Amino acid sequence: SASGPGAGPLSGYPVIAHRGGPARHAEESVAAYRAVAAQGFALELDVQPLADGTLVVMHDDTVDRTTDGTGAVRDLTLAQWQRLRLADGSTPPTWDQVVEEFGDNLLVPEVKSPDALRPLIASVQSHRLEDRLVAQSFLPEDARALAASGIPAMLLTSAAAPARDLASLRDAGVDYIGASAATPDLTRYADQTREAGLGFAVWVVNDAGAAAGLVRSGAVSVFTDDPWAMRTALRSG
Ligand code: G3P
Ligand code: CA
């Protein structure tokens, strides 16, 4: 785990390209990740399994919104997945493709389905990605399991349910809280998080001034749909 708030893999990465930065490219597409990787941003992606267990990269439970297909991701075969086309005509990536092309960049995968947890842990360990990655989940049990496996972990929290057991999460080795930007009294939550010894990140912030203000006041990173708008306000390391 990180040695203190702000330490750990996100140090030097104030900008995390949420879903690859859909303001300019197809959401969670290879082209999006290429563009943001070239700028030195961290890459956020959502991970879930197909019917055969292959981990793929997509936000929604179904392929309906972002591809030309229909149906639940978890019901598809790999052959069906590879026939899908995103808005830019490309095939949505698998997790292995992302690791192969972008494994030297800072990856921020989210465990989007409970079935993705164990395969993601196994993949991170086998590729020795622990120094190049922060894995996130809205489920505290996922964040604890990631930390117990030696993988830098972020617990995502919604506006309605900020984490109340910060010291316990820290003791379990969880490194970061990823708070909704809509959390009431966000500044106080940030202070409590850092006082408990956890790093604090915020999702999703698309205003460059707001993002710069959060980082100035101690947030380690912000997730944004438009990393290019942040370039002058926030330098990536
Ligand atoms: O990782 C933060 C953010 O991605 C969580 O929201 O719905 O975009 O996965 P969502
Ligand atoms: Ca996500």
Automatic annotation (TrEMBL):
First-to-last residue of the parent protein present: 85 to 321 of 321
Residue ranges of domain GP-PDE in the record: 13-234
GO molecular function: phosphoric diester hydrolase activity
UniProt GO BP: lipid metabolic process
Superkingdom, taxonomy of origin: Bacteria
Organism (species): Pedococcus bigeumensis
Name assigned to this protein: GP-PDE domain-containing protein
Coiled coil location: none
